[in-house]
């Protein structure tokens, strides 16, 4: 089905940039620059400048950025890494694959790591904190860094959803030992397929992830320093990402304007909670615009019937996916979030007219509910634990 308001619009994204992207592809391909060439180095240089770190290293995905960062930080068997239960599975899989134990904690009203839950989860085995800057909002990094220093913990940021987001004038990916980015096509800076990067000020981290991503080999000496991986950021992808990076500040500004239109249009609907982004120290990049309502599933179906495509990040707590083998960490807020969140259409292509269609459809949904029928979820706890099998 083709939506009047698609969640994202990669075809339109390409059409707008066609000339520049085609030029970059043609140049790169006709030079035969496929692996580890100047296009990758240039992009890494420009990305490090953008984020505000000394180094950036391109890898095959956001997952690889996380996994290699953990390895470079010396995280392994016997260690615990504290992260949040409300995140994409790759955050946790990277910890598991590094051989460490993921300890999942609660998020606050902003969907980001709750510093008090973090501190309560620290044990003598804790080695690292892995905060996730979700939806384009940097975590409360002052508190998290204070806790990290107090307990002598490494901080690795999952900044996959926060390219360009800032806290106190510093960009996501520049706070911890390493910042991890994803260029999955749906991300604010999206590539042609999978891709990712690690940002860091630490030359040893930069060196180790540079070796790990390409067979463990030092390309200068030919020496293999580790059993490595085949996980480079493709050179052609880097060439295209470098083109897109130049447009990114403008796209983030567009996302902020779209978020403001959503806020103006949706404010005041009692049953709908808009992003709880308080304080003046954050500059959000709005990777996603996430609303909450206990009528989420009905609202989503109604929007679908209006031609408005939405997504749910994520409908089921991670620990309920049996194959992941995670213990139930008992996070009631995270569980509630799974039942209530809805991501509205958001991209660098979405137009104010499309926002208006979305806003009007949401207003219509809530206006249609006969008086007194809203709030069943509060009266019926069964609704809240839906999805919680057993
Ligand atoms: C997208 C994403 C990742 C993983 O990125 P991939 O490039 O798909 O491996 C990790 N964490 C979060 C929060 C993400 O949104």
Q: Any overview of this molecule?
A:
With 390 residues, this protein is of the alpha/beta class. It has two domains: 10-105 and 112-244, Type I PLP-dependent aspartate aminotransferase-like (Major domain) (Aspartate Aminotransferase, domain 2), CATH 3.40.640.10; 248-368, Aspartate Aminotransferase, domain 1 (Alpha-Beta Complex). It is 41% helix and 12% strand. It contains 13 helices and twelve strands. It has helices spanning 10-31, 38-51, 62-72, 89-97, 115-120, 141-150, 203-212, 235-266, 296-305, 332-340, 352-368, 376-379, 381-384; strands spanning 55-59, 80-84, 101-105, 126-129, 154-158, 166-167, 170-171, 178-182, 196-200, 282-283, 289-292, 341-344. The strands form three sheets. A seven-stranded mixed beta sheet has the order 1-9-8-5-4-2-3, sandwiched between helices. The chain has a three-stranded antiparallel beta sheet with strand order 7-6-10, with no helix packed on it. Helix 2 packs parallel to helix 8 (235-266), helix 3 (62-72) packs across helix 7 and helix 8 (235-266) packs across helix 11 (352-368). It is globular and about 75 Å long. The model is unreliable at 376-390 (pLDDT under 50).
């Amino acid at each position: 089905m083709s939506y009047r308001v698609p969640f994202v619009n990669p075809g339109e994204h390409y059409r707008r940039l066609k000339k520049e992207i085609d030029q970059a592809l043609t140049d790169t391909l006709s030079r035969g620059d496929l692996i580890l060439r100047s296009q990758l180095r240039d992009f890494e240089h420009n990305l490090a400048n953008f984020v505000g770190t000394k180094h950036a290293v391109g890898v095959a995905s956001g997952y690889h950025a996380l996994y290699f960062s953990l390895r470079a930080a010396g995280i392994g068997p016997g260690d615990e890494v504290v992260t949040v239960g409300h995140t994409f599975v790759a955050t946790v899989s990277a910890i598991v694959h590094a051989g460490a134990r993921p300890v999942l904690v609660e998020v606050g009203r902003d969907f980001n790591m709750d510093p008090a839950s973090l501190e309560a989860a620290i044990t003598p085995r804790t080695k690292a904190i892995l905060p996730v800057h979700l939806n384009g909002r940097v975590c409360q990094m002052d508190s998290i860094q204070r806790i990290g220093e107090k307990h002598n913990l490494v901080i690795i940021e999952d900044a996959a959803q926060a390219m360009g987001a800032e806290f106190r004038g510093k960009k996501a990916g520049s706070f911890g030992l390493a910042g991890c980015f994803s260029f999955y096509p749906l991300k604010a800076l999206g590539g042609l397929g999978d891709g990712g990067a690690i940002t860091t000020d630490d030359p040893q981290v930069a060196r180790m992830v540079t070796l790990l991503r390409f067979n463990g080999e030092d390309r200068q000496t030919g020496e293999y320093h580790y059993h490595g991986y085949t996980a480079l950021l493709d050179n052609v992808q880097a060439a295209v990402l470098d083109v897109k990076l130049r447009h990114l500040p403008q796209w983030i500004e567009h996302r902020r304007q779209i978020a403001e239109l959503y806020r103006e249009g949706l404010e005041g609907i009692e049953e709908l909670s808009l992003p709880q982004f308080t304080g003046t120290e954050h500059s959000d990049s709005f990777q996603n615009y996430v609303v909450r309502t206990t009528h989420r599933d009905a609202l989503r179906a109604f929007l679908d019937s209006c031609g408005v495509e939405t997504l749910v990040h994520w409908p089921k707590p991670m620990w309920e996916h049996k194959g992941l083998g995670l213990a139930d960490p008992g996070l009631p807020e995270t569980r509630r979030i799974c039942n209530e969140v809805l991501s509205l259409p958001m991209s660098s292509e979405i137009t104010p007219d499309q926002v208006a269609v979305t806003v009007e459809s949401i207003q219509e949904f809530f206006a249609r509910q006969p008086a007194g029928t809203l709030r069943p979820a509060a009266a019926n706890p069964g609704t809240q634990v839906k999805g919680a099998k057993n």
